[in-house]
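ok trying this again, last paste got cut off
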Amino acid sequence: MAQNDDPLDDDDFPAYTMGRAAAIIGVSHDFLRRLGELRLITPLRSDGGHRRYSKHQLRLAARARELCDRGTPLDAACRIIVLEDQLEEALRINRELQPEID
């Protein structure tokens, strides 16, 4: 496998178990389960049915934790993150569609 084909370099590769993911971002397993219930993240499942998380999903979970640490309810934190992502994508598309100004 070429070095640039390393799955660990892929932000969407499900490299982290629930325990490791929870430890990395400092949350409980229940917190990660709730993020799944609220559809902020959808962990992939191993052949044995265990949840596996990607780096991208860990960043989203960490953002949710930051908002919750500031007093935002978890369901509202998830909605904020989804809306932020939608806005970022809309702005990106808008930049691509605007004609270049000399």
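PB: full thing came through this time. The two ends are 44 Å apart (CA to CA).
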